[in-house]
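Fold this complex.
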Amino acid sequence: MEMEKYFRVDKLPHIWCPGCGHGSVMMSIVKGIDKMGWDPEKVTVVSGIGCSSRAPGYMNFNTLHTVHGRPIAFATGIKLANPELHVIVITGDGDGAAIGGNHLIHACRRNIGINVVLFNNQIYGMTSGQYSPMTPEGSMATTSPYGNIEPPFDLCELTRSAGANFVARGTVYHLPKLDSYIEKAFGKEGFSYVEAISQCPTYYGRRNKMKTPLEMLEWQKKNSIDIKKARDLDSEQLKGKIITGIFAERDDEEYTARYDQLIKSVQGGKE
Amino acid sequence: MEMEKYFRVDKLPHIWCPGCGHGSVMMSIVKGIDKMGWDPEKVTVVSGIGCSSRAPGYMNFNTLHTVHGRPIAFATGIKLANPELHVIVITGDGDGAAIGGNHLIHACRRNIGINVVLFNNQIYGMTSGQYSPMTPEGSMATTSPYGNIEPPFDLCELTRSAGANFVARGTVYHLPKLDSYIEKAFGKEGFSYVEAISQCPTYYGRRNKMKTPLEMLEWQKKNSIDIKKARDLDSEQLKGKIITGIFAERDDEEYTARYDQLIKSVQGGKE
Amino acid sequence: MTERVKLMQGNEACVEGALDAGVLFYAGYPITPSSEIAEEFAAKLPKVGGKFIQMEDEIASMGAVVGASLAGKKAVTATSGPGFSLKQEIIGFANMIEAPCVIMNVQRAGPSTGLPTSPAQGDVMQARWGTHGDHPALVLCPNSVTDAYLLSFQAVNWAERFRTPVILLLDETIGHLRERVILPRKDEMVITNRKQPHGAPGSFQPYDITDEDLIPPLPPYGGGYRFHTTGLYHDETGFPSNRPEVTSRLLNRLHEKIDKYKETLFLYETYGLRQANQLIISYGASARSAKAAWRIAREKGLLVGLLILKTIWPFPEEIVAQAGHDKNNIVVAEMNRGQLIGEVERVMDKRIPIRGAQRADGVLITPEQILAKLEGVN
Amino acid sequence: MTERVKLMQGNEACVEGALDAGVLFYAGYPITPSSEIAEEFAAKLPKVGGKFIQMEDEIASMGAVVGASLAGKKAVTATSGPGFSLKQEIIGFANMIEAPCVIMNVQRAGPSTGLPTSPAQGDVMQARWGTHGDHPALVLCPNSVTDAYLLSFQAVNWAERFRTPVILLLDETIGHLRERVILPRKDEMVITNRKQPHGAPGSFQPYDITDEDLIPPLPPYGGGYRFHTTGLYHDETGFPSNRPEVTSRLLNRLHEKIDKYKETLFLYETYGLRQANQLIISYGASARSAKAAWRIAREKGLLVGLLILKTIWPFPEEIVAQAGHDKNNIVVAEMNRGQLIGEVERVMDKRIPIRGAQRADGVLITPEQILAKLEGVN
Amino acid sequence: MPKKGKVEIKESWCKGCEICATFCPKKILGLRNDGKMEVKDPENCIACNQCVLRCPDYAIKVEVIENND
Amino acid sequence: MPKKGKVEIKESWCKGCEICATFCPKKILGLRNDGKMEVKDPENCIACNQCVLRCPDYAIKVEVIENND
Amino acid sequence: MARYEIRLSGAGGQGLILAGIILSEAVVRFTDKEVVQTQSYGPEARGGASKAEVIISDEEIDYPQVNKPDFLLALTQEAYNKYNRDLKEYGIMVVDERVDIAMRGGPTYVVPIQKLTQEKLGTRMVVNVVSLALFNKLHEVVETEKLREVVLERVPRGTEDLNKKALELGEELAENLNQYKIKSKEEEEEE
Amino acid sequence: MARYEIRLSGAGGQGLILAGIILSEAVVRFTDKEVVQTQSYGPEARGGASKAEVIISDEEIDYPQVNKPDFLLALTQEAYNKYNRDLKEYGIMVVDERVDIAMRGGPTYVVPIQKLTQEKLGTRMVVNVVSLALFNKLHEVVETEKLREVVLERVPRGTEDLNKKALELGEELAENLNQYKIKSKEEEEEE
Ligand SMILES: Cc1ncc(C[n+]2csc(CCOP(=O)(O)OP(=O)(O)O)c2C)c(N)n1
Ligand SMILES: Cc1ncc(C[n+]2csc(CCOP(=O)(O)OP(=O)(O)O)c2C)c(N)n1
Ligand code: SF4
Ligand code: SF4
Ligand code: SF4
Ligand code: SF4
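Structure:
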């Protein structure tokens, strides 16, 4: 793959910390675009605010770095205004699951043709390490100095329930699988959600007894469990585990396609 | 049941239209409170904005009519500030599922001890009949003059996935069952969500070939299907149906109880 | 031409004006008293191949509108007080990234839920200062249904021309009023489209100002020019920078691109200014009452002038100063506890008495109230 | 007493001040440069039996704070520009229902994402006008870490006393600054608690003004008084009403309950005002540079006075007019493109030149910039 | 032994939606000219309370009458 | 026949996180004093591309060398 | 016609707002007069009293609100109670026969509009169009056929015949209006 | 001491911000001087150069920012490049030996701080405390024991011994600082 085709090489190296997993996930997305053979002119990458949301700046497409939590709303406008565009949203567990949770579930419900990739580092990186709605219970963070008492979301369950056409979770450790989920997601019409477990050694790792990026990858490896295996386990056994795999794969009609039909019928069927 | 104990009788009759289902649901809630034997002084009812959200004004407790979409946020503050209070949230499909969707799922996730009752009339009543995220596909509304093309949420699925301790859906037609769901919900520690299918003859009914409240009740009757039976049907067969019954019944630890433990441990275990 | 004489509601006229200006996208969330705008767009946009979407809230609506604008469509949203408050963050973003879009706010009485079906002009200062940080604002106030049509059309044009969010600030009275309108023929209306880049895509810098007008071109996504956009301070390439010379250059230009054209942006009406020793200043629905008060005062033989503002932000300092400097009484009529009067006070000399004819109880201000503030009325 | 001499950060001082004033509840959403406030509360509240919650966004945080306040706890939230914009709707609600609470906004450079870690004072007008509809505002600006402590304490007291949201408007410079602070002994600090009703619960009307102070008592939920609260216009019983006499009575009282006490609310410092023919006015971090400029100017023998405002809203009109009326040059130093200067212009006579020493590029304004606006500096 | 009931309609609260009438197994309720419900056939009430349960406006009360036979 | 590879590290992009070294099956990569990676044992590279896949900073390229034997 | 203020009031759902709009549209389309139309909004308008107001004038209409109606229609007691207060002293008042009214000076007509509508047309649904025609005939704002044109465009399909009959009934009532006139205070005193 | 401005710079993660805070706290607790401390924030501070600044003064410190440091420490090239510009002409500069510097007038010391820290203490983690002690000894801001007291309160548990050694190393470097002095431009020119 040619770097220049998809990256703004002059902007690299990226601002992410040494060993941050976000670089790996960004590459995974680019590989997905490459595999789809999409014309980069027709690709739009939208993000919110966060370390993860800085990714579009490095990616050589139409890129939009919006406000915290709302990239899916902007993306909805873009996709509906021009359904020809391939619209990818890059978001974080803060951006996408905390402040942006509502837009996420509504986009799932509408099943609008947007591909969301959520970089889940289980912490607010950009703001220096507060807990997020996906921080595991008991974890240390700057705003949970005595250990986090909030149960985290399983956002794959949630997006599936909300109606997304495709839902999967991978990890940076299991990178080739992550690549394949993203590729499948991009291949779907309709809304897709891929969650990539990424590592934030700087703010999550250091406070949670994983000083190096490697320890964090090790943790991903040890705690991941395939969704098929997970089905045989109860919620107690699954506590703290990362369930990976494909959660939903449907072919419900995409929203902008429906809208186009509506226009046709209102206009009296003229093409 | 003594009306005066639980209602502000001088405020009645309520402003709801003839045949509006909201009055029935409000009574169901009051019956639930009565059955629990809660001291009315310790009950706080919080709502957003909408026809449904006008209910607290008629109810003789501590009542708070907040802003559109955010009653659960206010309720979270109330419950956490004083866990002794029984905090009930009354919301609508606009208030709770459109603008307020995020607060709903986050409250489920935290499993905070709030009882949410969502009056689902499948339309924005207060603003005169725009479609909501729970309006059935194809329905007519002022903002879907050619029929609604958005698939509705199954909010019971969603709240279950998000972690609520108790989730159920009933209808005004099947009122005694609705009563029993609300009673069960109130009996749970932790977060509960009860969805009550209510009828809006004025804005939903008239536009959708159900001119009278009775036709709407008839529709509820005909389209409802018990969750146990629904399990044997596929999504095509379930399209447009109202699945009723209990979706989730768990006993995960309630949030403010966890917080109290945290305080104890921080303060060094002193009681 | 008679086809353009109609009975029309203010909210409907906003939609007609926007459609005639080429709007093809609407995202919104219903709220009284603006909902008819959404409803009209929902009915009419599909007919012209445009898109209407009801989003999950006002924030999402504002986001979708900016997104659609970047995708190349002229885009509008509408709301009222509570929703206007929610949109503020992204209005600031639109300002910063220079996304053309129109926000219609049909004012009702606030604060908070207030009086949802009652008229007010309580969001006048918010329309100027509602989002955080320094930013310019372009805000138009119609005082009739015809005005609603014309200013809506103008708002879309200016949004495109200046690459900026434009706020159309109605009030419940004008939004819900039905009246006889006489609209210009469509072929008399001049539509403005956003500037497009000319150079090679490779060398395109999205915030590079080659033209004197200080406004960078804006190609649509998918149109052959790839670029990056961020709400962070950014340089000409569109990428973030915190160098003080870059940040001050950007912020200055955002203001100057509008200040430079101020003179052409000031829309207003005047009545009997020359032969007057007193002046009434008003805007929006209040201007209707002001007009009546002015008429009655004139009938009584008082030398009163009337200045009706349609552009309220940027505030037409010179026009107000000019109209008021030789008067010995200025009455500012508005439906709030005194908002735009502060600007009048700011630009006028202290020796001229300035009085507010104000009303904020949910009732349209009356001509009598305004008359009472004039001198020599019995 | 030496125990109260400390090295403290501005954000930390806000937390200390609030805790000392009896705050037991914090809800917030992290944002630079305010996050340390959340972090400190997260660590300290459980120790005193209080509650900290990180909500899903700023809107929810604001809602939770108002909820907790009604449940009887003194409650605080903190944020910065983008989050402050989001909180506006519920700030208006808190105004309307008269819920005591404190909102801390540590300003960074806007608009939009702007410069998250750079100082600015761009939200000054927003703090006054950010929510829709007419409403009063009580806004305090600390210019040192000691001030941050004292004004935070004061803000909580005033919120409780006046049943109103109070805004503590910091900036990145003061929020992140660590300096030596000397705090009063705790037993010297007087805590204000909200007024409680006395009568029988049956006859309790939550908005009935029996006292001259215009402020109704506020019992906590569960405390034996049941009542209804709404963001709609409401009468003394708390239930909605759209009768003009009721709506105007409520809106007037909301303003008057603060206006009445204006004199006691104006906190400010003055330096060398008497022997001065020029005046510098400033607030917040800019006041630090203004103080330096004033010192240097004095050293140069210029007759310059300095007025540092700590209460910026309500705007201390008389104090500014008094300090400025006999000067022949007024310099308003602020980190924006001119916000509070508009108020100074409004209250001063046109013949006195008013100059802005302004900076909005993310860098702390320098003493030199301010000096340059004085007359007679070579 | 079948119960008997005495139905009381609070006119100021009744909005005439006719829900009670439909659910009444004895069909003894009907709409008056002025849009309020009335008990057309008071004798036949069996105090089943369906109308009370169903009225969304709490406008109906049913008192069980002693059955003296 | 086992492939051979030539590893090239783009120093200005490398942040020294050591992920590549860990995933390298031949353990030929190591941290230099200045915090950048270097190829300690270039001969042993088998062009498996693990380091390329794993480097979150895209700082490694591996060229497959013709295996001439 | 100088500024003439009309207030049509009744219960929410009686269609008086539509009547106001139809009247205004007829004025715009078939006269050179200015017209503005306003109405009550909000949840209050749903169950209880509701009103539509129209101002017709030869001159520009600046202040757009009806403050002292020249004409008041009140179909229900609640509407009458709420909206009769500001009627001009010699303004015309038309009320349904079931409305209890206070004695007054101006021309006052108590008409069994609802009853006759029900009796003659078999439904009360078109009481708004009956009232509209009554008003129009009385004031001769536009010609009968013109009004009919607008009405037929605006009413739901399938109800055209019914509405035509409603128009006729309204005109008939207007023509016989004097029989419904009640004595004014003064007239009574004169007796 | 009149206003004295100190800038400690290096790579993010080297702990210089903590060093700045410790210094400031020592001033507050053990002297009567005023002190303010600021630092670089944001993502920029994460990977690249980072700085902590302290102003110490006998008088009130109004303008709180360091504009022309009297003392600059630069542990990395990037920090030096970014932050050396405004150093006062005769301000003191201490840089790590691996930093390439331009010739200048004021007193300049090129010290192998990082290397010696690594060699003598077996880790570079405490290079911040070494630098802090060096600065403190040089300027005698507070007594050695006082500084140690604050350091030991602020560093992670279990690192006390290491930090004590770091303090000693820093002081030792300060005492021998002259051996690291390089010739100034002028001195060079004088030769
Ligand atoms: C409205 C608003 N609220 C809060 C912030 C501050 N903020 C910026 S990024 C962020 C969290 C980022 O977390 P996440 O999305 O998980 O991304 P990460 O940095 O961990 O990759 C927050 C809270 C903001 N910029 N805007
Ligand atoms: C921020 C904001 N946006 C929009 C509105 C307008 N609004 C009031 S109620 C409502 C919808 C109500 O629908 P629902 O919650 O389903 O209640 P219903 O009236 O149907 O019972 C809307 C959109 C508002 N008041 N505030
Ligand atoms: S703070 Fe965490 S998420 Fe952000 S760049 Fe560093 S390692 Fe990555
Ligand atoms: S509009 Fe609908 S939801 Fe609202 S009161 Fe009437 S029937 Fe009920
Ligand atoms: S109690 Fe039963 S029988 Fe009697 S009126 Fe009610 S529904 Fe009918
Ligand atoms: S993985 Fe990449 S960034 Fe990390 S050490 Fe290896 S080459 Fe450097």
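Chain H touches chain C through one residue (CB under 8 Å).
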